[in-house]
Amino acid sequence: MSGLESLSRYNRHVHRADYLRQVPSAIRFISAEPLLSALPDLDLEGIDWVIAGGESGPKDRPPRPEWFRDLRDQCLETDVAFFFKQWGGRYPKARGRELEGRTWNQYPALPELRPKGAPRAQRTRLAASA
After folding, report:
1. How far, in Å, CA of 39 to CA of 78, rounded?
2. pTM, whole model, 2 decimals?
3. Nearest residue to 126 (alpha-carbon basis) of 60, 81, 66
4. Which residues make beta-bridge pairs with 53?
């Protein structure tokens, strides 16, 4: 498993995903934590998993909901697993984990367990809450 962190600090860093795609790995993931801006130019080709979350700590910067919605929608459109970790706040998970009324707990399907031609996101591991 190969991952890329700190991509979340503004759209100008999305080119780092190009380097991640060059790494031979069964699963490639992007950790967009803390998400500090929208990432409209992020190319998810060859990426299996995106983990997103807000900043926590005494000087946290509250995220905009549309940043997470847009990133989640990009994942859904490209069949990339999406995991929403937290909104952030003074303490981790202070604002909860729900995005639009549910939790997003997708994990990438393990390649050796994924039938040929099957989607990369393991949709059966979703946990919805109302």
Report:
1. 15
2. 0.80
3. 81
4. 86
C-alpha distances out from residue 90 to 52, 58, 100, Å? 17, 5, 21
Q: Calculate the CA 14 to chain-centre distance.
A: 13
What lies within 8 Å, CB to CB, of 117 at 6+ separation is none
Do strands 107-108 and 81-86 pair parallel, antiparallel, or not at all (unpaired)?
unpaired
End-to-end CA distance of the chain: 32
Structure tokens at 65: 């909901």
Q: Are the C-beta atoms of residues 84 and 97 closer than 8 Å to each other?
A: yes
Residues in the chain: 130
Q: Where are the beta strands (DSSP E) in 10-120?
A: 28-32, 49-53, 81-86, 107-108
Q: pLDDT per residue over 97-112, tens digit each? A: 999 999 999 999 887 7
pLDDT greater than 70 at residue 35: yes
